[in-house]
């Protein structure tokens, strides 16, 4: 006869690893060519001057310069407007 109780399996340990999303360079910071500015899922932030969007919606710098953020009105497909955040790299 067994002297220890049977152990059941745990229901923990199934969380996925975090993806480290978010803003990597803030306004006023100097960046180089190809530096990642924002990691995102979907388009929370839109690319502006000298910024390109990657296949996974990551925004990165095309030229050296300083990061700046602006707001812009964007028209949706149904004609309504919404304010979106746009990130630019301005050359110094």
TrEMBL record:
One of its GO terms (cellular component) is cytosolic large ribosomal subunit. Residues 1-26 are annotated as: Disordered. This is Large ribosomal subunit protein bL27. GO terms for biological process: translation. Belongs to the bacterial ribosomal protein bL27 family. Gene3D superfamilies: 2.40.50.100. InterPro entries: Ribosomal_bL27 (IPR001684), Ribosomal_bL27_CS (IPR018261). Keywords: Ribonucleoprotein, Ribosomal protein. It comes from the Bacteria. One of its GO terms (molecular function) is structural constituent of ribosome.
């Amino acid at each position: 006869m067994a002297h220890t109780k049977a152990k059941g399996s745990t229901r923990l340990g199934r969380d996925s690893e975090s993806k480290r999303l978010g803003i990597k360079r803030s306004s006023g910071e100097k960046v180089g060519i190809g530096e990642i500015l924002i990691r995102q899922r979907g388009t929370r932030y839109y690319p502006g001057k000298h910024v390109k969007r990657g296949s996974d919606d990551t925004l990165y710098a095309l030229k050296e310069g300083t990061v700046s953020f602006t707001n812009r009105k964007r028209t949706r497909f149904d004609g309504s407007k919404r304010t979106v955040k746009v990130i630019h790299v301005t050359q110094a």
